[in-house]
Specification:
This protein is of the alpha+beta class. It has 9 helices and 39 strands. Strands 8, 9, 10, 11, 12, 13, 14 and 15 form an 8-stranded mixed beta sheet that branches. A 5-stranded mixed beta sheet has the order 17-24-23-19-20, with no helix packed on it. It starts with a helix and ends with a strand.
């Protein structure tokens, strides 16, 4: 009945609006055409013109010939003019050219009109219907001749924008008795106001919001006002008057485009969830039938939710549908450990739920009615007897597939699921139409269903019911944190930093450098007080900038907030920020070096050391081989004052760039250049000779040499070592001189290059010279 009555009222309101719009349109049309008066030839005296005010149109206009509007002209002007009226004071002017034509049609010749001059007395007995003047002379035309002119079409009545009476006084040439510029402006204002009212009614009828209706109304006012004022000659008789209509349309369109603003709110829900394999396990066996690939656990589970690997870790691994005969849905029970705030909330059985549904009430021990405090950060959960997905919804009748939200915002198969939410006050005006919260007299019911891997679903929902206390909100907002952590460092030499303050309910926050009352705090913050505007942690955000931050010392800031009910913090939230110093990179290696190796790729260790900054050099360092934005990669060992990264590089020249950033946002950059040399050549013996009583071998690079007295087929490490005369000079090698010996010599360089096991660098026979 209520819905039917509401619908009937809305229908009646729409009909009334349509009636008003139609009425205004007809009235507007009547006003615009009020000057179209169909007078009779014998009743010309109804219309009059004030000769003393030529050009001000208060009477009806006449035309000379089809489509020609009579042109006003003062009686004192020279040349021919024609006046038409019942007496001399009732006059209509035409141009001299048209007057000549009219005179030519009277009695055949113009000169014959002169006979009529002053022959007809102005006593009213013989009414004078017109007069022709030439160079100041007046020639009266008797009524019979004037009527002839009217009847044969020489002079005919025409339409006019003028009118008489009240409407004529308002919308005509001289509204309310005004004249000149004042009359034009007043007429334009009245026409514009009428158009604006029509636009306002039309906007409401066609469902435009308040801002859109205002834009339409004002654009109509501006366009009509501009057109009417210009068309009446407000700014003269030139270009503006000729193009008054397109100028008026342009002004109206410009006003509408400038003021038009379409704003709407819509609740958009999106979830980024892992990919789900199909329900059940009909395709599990496909994993075992591919002879070219082993059936891994990943491949197996991707074929179905109920697929599992049997005999894991053996040669008999198989993918199978576990428990295909399972037809039982998961068992749902409330999870006590998930209920938070801890110690304040409890589950109790809900006997009001109709079977076969089951459920519990969540009650707050602080209130006698069991209702939760407004903006409580509520957490609750379910326990299951098997891994399953769970969903939650405000609608009892939705099936599992159509339910809106995953329990805990994830689609994983778990034994336990937890849901978090924050409750607005039950009568809060901040609760928009998009929010589904707090229906049924401030009591909420949430319906949960779960589905196992075989697709078995709880068709009978498990219901969580709770209410929010309706008592007046006397609790001030709670500041739960800020975007900068307590005692966080800030960048060196920075004067201000952006900050977000997080509260448990919509609030307006301020900050100060001193611990002051809310009203005395100097700095305001920008806050979103929409109840649906929560972040990922179900908190409300105020943002602003903290200024006046000093380097290398603690900076204290104080915050207080006021909620929409006027409750204000009596204690400040204190935040301390640490001013810092510059971050420095004190070394980076290898730099300007040649790194050699005997393999195709050479292992290189990039190393960086940092100092100072926000935390005595502790920083995160990144490296890049190009130095372009977006190319930097975190070093493997970092978040310290020493940083390293291992690379395998081939032969060539290299440049690497480093960028390090500390906790305060201080950054430092440097770069290094080095060369990688791949040495696969075995050392060469360039000389062999007797030096005093020793055999001396000279190599082309630092090396270690050994010899055998038998042959070259020996392992290097089993050979007899040649000695260095100077340990710092590793190119000169010495052995005992013995003419009876033949020395089979092998040499190994610092890269490990050496001859093959059955080869030698050189074979030397010692002989006496």
């Amino acid at each position: 009945m209520i819905k039917r009555g509401k619908s009937r009222f809305i229908s009646s309101l729409c009909i009334l609006q349509i009636f008003l719009i139609v009425s205004f349109v007809f009235a507007f049309s009547f006003v615009m055409n009020a000057g179209i008066v169909s007078g009779q030839d014998e009743n010309i005296s109804e219309f009059n013109r004030d000769v003393g005010s030529p050009g001000i149109q208060t009477g009806i206009e006449w035309a000379t010939g089809p489509g020609k509007i009579a042109s006003p002209a003062p009686t004192s002007s020279t040349g021919l003019n024609l006046r038409i009226g019942k007496a001399e004071t009732i006059t209509e002017y035409v141009s001299a050219k048209d007057a000549e034509a009219i005179i030519a049609n009277i009695n055949g010749k113009p000169t014959e009109i002169a006979k009529l001059k002053s022959t007809i007395p102005l006593d009213g007995k013989n009414p004078i219907w017109g007069a022709v003047t030439k160079d100041g002379e007046t020639i009266n035309i008797p009524s019979s001749e004037a009527e002839k002119l009217l009847s044969d079409g020489t002079i005919k009545k025409s339409t006019s924008s003028s009118s008489s009476g009240f409407l004529g006084g308002i919308f005509g040439a001289t509204p309310f008795g005004l004249s000149g510029t004042a009359a034009h402006l007043t007429t334009g204002l009245i026409w514009g106001a009428t158009a604006a009212l029509i636009g306002k009614l039309a906007g409401g009828l066609f469902g435009l919001d308040k801002q859109q209706s205002n834009a339409l109304s004002l654009s109509l006012f501006g366009g009509v006002f501009t057109y009417r004022s210009l068309s009446q000659g407000l700014l003269g008789e030139g270009f503006l008057k000729s193009y008054a209509l397109p100028i008026g349309i342009g002004v109206g369109v410009a006003i509408f485009l400038f003021m038009y603003k379409k704003e709407s709110k819509k609740l958009v829900t999106f979830q980024c969830l892992p990919w789900e394999p199909p329900i059940g396990g009909n395709s599990c066996e496909k994993c075992n039938k591919d002879p070219l690939r082993l059936c891994s656990e990943y491949r197996c589970k991707s074929l179905g939710q109920a697929c599992q690997i049997l005999n894991p870790g053996t040669q008999e691994e198989r993918c199978a549908w576990v428990n295909p005969g399972d037809v039982n849905s998961p068992t749902i029970t409330p999870w006590k450990d998930a209920l938070k705030p801890i110690g304040l909330l409890n589950y109790i059985p809900d006997t009001t739920i109709r079977p076969p549904n089951r459920g519990v009430k969540i009650i707050d021990s602080r209130n006698s009615n069991g209702c939760l405090e407004p903006f409580t950060p509520l957490e609750f959960g379910v326990e299951l007897n098997e891994p399953a997905q769970c969903k939650i919804d405000f609608n009892r009748n939705n099936t599992f597939a159509n339910m809106q939200y995953y329990f805990g915002e994830n689609n994983l198969y778990r034994y336990n699921h937890t849901q978090k939410m924050r409750l607005p006050a039950p009568k809060s005006e901040l609760l928009g139409t998009e929010s589904p919260l707090l229906q049924n007299d401030n009591t909420m019911s949430l319906f949960a269903r779960c589905q196992d891997a075989n697709g078995n679903v709880n068709e009978d929902a498990f219901v969580f019911t709770f209410c929010v206390d309706e008592s007046p909100d006397t609790t001030p907002p709670i500041i739960e944190g800020t975007s900068i952590i307590q005692n966080g460092a800030v960048q060196f030499n920075i004067d201000k930093v952006p900050i977000d303050v997080y509260t448990n309910e919509p609030a307006i926050c301020k900050w100060s450098r001193g611990n002051k009352a809310y009203e005395e705090m100097e700095n305001s913050m920008t806050c979103n007080t929409d109840a649906s505007a929560v972040n990922a942690n179900l908190q409300y955000t105020c943002n602003g900038e903290l200024t006046g931050i000093a380097n290398q010392q603690n900076n204290d800031f104080y915050f207080r907030c006021q909620d929409t009910e006027g409750n204000t913090n009596v204690q400040s939230y204190k935040l301390t920020l640490r001013g810092s110093q510059e971050l420095n990179i004190i070394s980076a290696s290898p730099n300007n070096e040649t790194v050699s190796g005997a393999t195709t790729t050479v292992p290189i260790a990039l190393q960086v050391k940092t100092d100072d900054g926000a935390d005595e050099g502790i920083a995160l360092c990144y490296f890049s081989n190009t130095g372009t934005e977006g190319s930097y990669i975190p070093m493997f060992n970092t978040n310290s004052f020493e940083h390293s990264q291992s690379l395998d590089l081939i032969n060539g020249d290299y440049t690497y760039h480093f960028r390090c950033v500390d906790a305060g946002g201080n950054s430092a950059e440097t770069s290094i250049k080095f060369k990688v040399f791949v040495d696969k050549e075995i050392p060469k013996v360039v000389r062999a000779y007797k030096d005093l009583d020793a055999l001396k071998i000279v190599t082309d690079e630092n090396a270690q040499c050994v010899y055998s007295l038998n042959n070259c087929n020996y392992v290097f490490d089993e050979g007899n070592a040649l000695l260095y005369s100077n340990p710092n000079i590793k190119r000169n090698h010495f052995a005992e001189w013995n003419t009876k010996n033949t020395y089979y010599i092998k040499c190994r360089d610092e890269k490990g290059n050496e001859p093959s096991p059955n080869s030698c660098n050189i074979v030397v026979n010692a002989v006496n010279l």
